[in-house]
Amino acid sequence: MNSPPIRPIRRLLIANRGEIALRIMRTCREMGIVTLAVYSEADRLSPHALFADEAYCVGPPPSRNSYLRGDYLIELAIRHKVDAIHPGYGFLSERPEFARAVEEAGLILVGPSARSMELMGNKLAARHTVADFQIPMVPGSPRAINDPIQAIEIAKEIGFPVLLKAAAGGGGKGMRVVESANEFAEQLERAHSEALSAFGDDAVFVEKYLAAPRHIEIQLIGDQHGNILYLFERECSIQRRHQKLVEEAPSSCLTPEVRRTMGEAAVRVAKACGYYNAGTVEFLVDEKLNFYFLEMNTRLQVEHPVTEMITGLDLVRLQIHVAEGHPLPIKQEDLQINGHAIELRVCAEDPLQQFLPDTGTLDRYRRPQGPGVRVDDGFREGMEVPVHYDSMLSKLVVHASNREEAIERMIRAVQEYEIKGVSTTLPFGLFVMRHPAFRSGQFDTGFITKYIHGKTLYPQPSKEQLRVAALTAAWHQEQQQTDPSGRQLVGQQPTSEPSNNALHTQAGNGTDISSNGFTPWRINRGF
Ligand code: ADP
């Protein structure tokens, strides 16, 4: 590989909005780089537009008329003498035609090459690209399928249930589980039309549908000198509609040996497509810790902060550094995992209505603070949650010296976070943090389907849990009678309650989750 020339970045346009635009700008400010924000008419008063050194309106609210106007953004960048464009995630970040146009305009894209995006942007192309690099893959059809009869034969060979996947898919969209041959033709037709309308490409392929896998991904960073490092894993198995809601690093299930093997496999994936800059290789992992390549995301991920917390690195700084043409300033052997980090995506969604997006005004918005808490957001109190963009309000990230403490810290931070005016995933975050399956590390991508039933965020209690609940309630009542103040006692539990027991003590009826308030004894250290 020829060494690239060093091209300093002094002015950077951020082709994105909200929390990620702000997050990138903060690092730029630390590096002395002038930031240019773009904003739609709906985002005129958004923190990202106000924070930037310069800000330019790029059109009306719908993304296609503003944040997705690649040619216009490049024109703007040239007009304002920008050196580089950072695309963030989503929007234009994985579009090779945009990457190419940026390059042709003589600008630097803070990201990988257009070629790497092309090779990894399509799930089928990605499978072909890594085929010769000893990367274990979920069994699947090598090509897009059209003929249902032939496709059923492939599905039978793989074994039902299978997953129909849009080759151009992303964001958890364009996937259909098919349980048997009878329903195959109908599901295939639907998958084709969904893929076409969502991604403008109707190519669909078949993959074995793994039962109860975990989603574990490897963060990579590479330079243009051929160096590529793995920055360990993130576990993202808590998902709704195949989209992540809670992420943590490190995973609670990997051994050091599997971690290294997965990291090295991810580096081979990156080498297969000549990758540089930040990227993520996603795997599914079964209960025996066998792992299978899913795809590579050729951008900075939403959940990158958990990696930053455990490695002490600033991924955006590294992205800019390698985009300028510098070699990576670190080596694999310099890297180590420090403590444990968890991220909760705080979305304007109602967890009790199948996570349906909600909109409204943030009548009250107060972030949690204190040790080990980081909130990446793009909102302020009084702001409307716009209907035009995704439902994520913020990322609540905590870091502590071990997993148990990180969970306790997340519970504290969620309870401190005040959001009024829209439903959010905060109560869901509490539910996860207190759930025995999550706490014990025994969970998979089916967590929500398994444990959220109807109108309650509590799993149906087992007989044993009901018995413990009755005992606890009796003990609690007794304590109140003996405590003349009538106050509830914090941090004490009956000795009959197993230390790892569930939170759903009160006869399993679930709890009003419209507020974050829980009685103190239910959040004590015991469980
Ligand atoms: P997208 O690009 O849309 O995010 P992915 O291929 O990355 O799609 O998969 C997203 C999620 O869908 C995974 O984290 C996992 O929960 C589920 N999934 C994908 N492929 C499979 C599979 N073959 N078996 C079981 N679950 C899968």
Please outline the helices and strands:
Blueprint (H helix, E strand, L loop, with lengths): L10 E4 L3 H14 L2 E6 L7 H5 L2 E4 L12 H10 L4 E3 L9 H9 L3 E2 L4 H8 L1 H8 L17 H11 L3 E5 L8 E4 L5 H16 L4 E5 L5 E9 L5 E13 L2 E7 L6 H17 L4 E9 L5 E7 L6 H8 L3 H9 L16 E8 L1 E2 L5 E2 L2 E2 L2 E3 L6 E5 L6 E2 L6 E9 L2 H14 L1 E3 L5 H9 L1 H5 L6 H5 L11 H20 L45
Parallel strand pairs: 1-2, 1-4, 2-3, 4-5
Antiparallel strand pairs: 6-7, 6-8, 9-10, 9-12, 10-11, 11-14, 12-13, 14-21, 15-16, 17-20, 18-22, 19-21
Helix pairs in contact: 4-5, 5-6, 12-13
The protein binds adenosine-5'-diphosphate (ADP).
The site of adenosine-5'-diphosphate has 20 residues, from strand 8, strand 12 and strand 13.
Question: Describe it for me?
Answer:
The chain is α+β, with helices and mostly antiparallel strands and 527 residues long. The protein folds into four domains: 11-110, Rossmann fold (3-Layer(aba) Sandwich); 139-208, ATP-grasp fold, A domain (Dna Ligase, domain 1), CATH 3.30.1490; 214-451, 2-Layer Sandwich (D-amino Acid Aminotransferase, Chain A, domain 1), CATH 3.30.470.20; 463-516, no CATH class. Helices cover 32% and strands 22% of the residues. The chain has helices spanning 18-31, 47-51, 70-79, 96-104, 114-121, 123-130, 148-158, 184-199, 256-272, 304-311, 315-323, 403-416, 426-434, 436-440, 447-451, 463-482; strands spanning 11-14, 34-39, 54-57, 84-86, 108-109, 162-166, 175-178, 204-208, 214-222, 228-240, 243-249, 277-285, 291-297, 340-347, 349-350, 356-357, 360-361, 364-366, 373-377, 384-385, 392-400, 418-420. The chain has an eight-stranded antiparallel sheet with strand order 13-12-9-10-11-14-21-19. The protein has a five-stranded parallel sheet with strand order 3-2-1-4-5, with helices on both faces. Helix 5 crosses helix 6. The longest helix is centred in the C-terminal third of the chain and has 20 residues, at 463-482. The model is unreliable at 483-527 (pLDDT under 50).
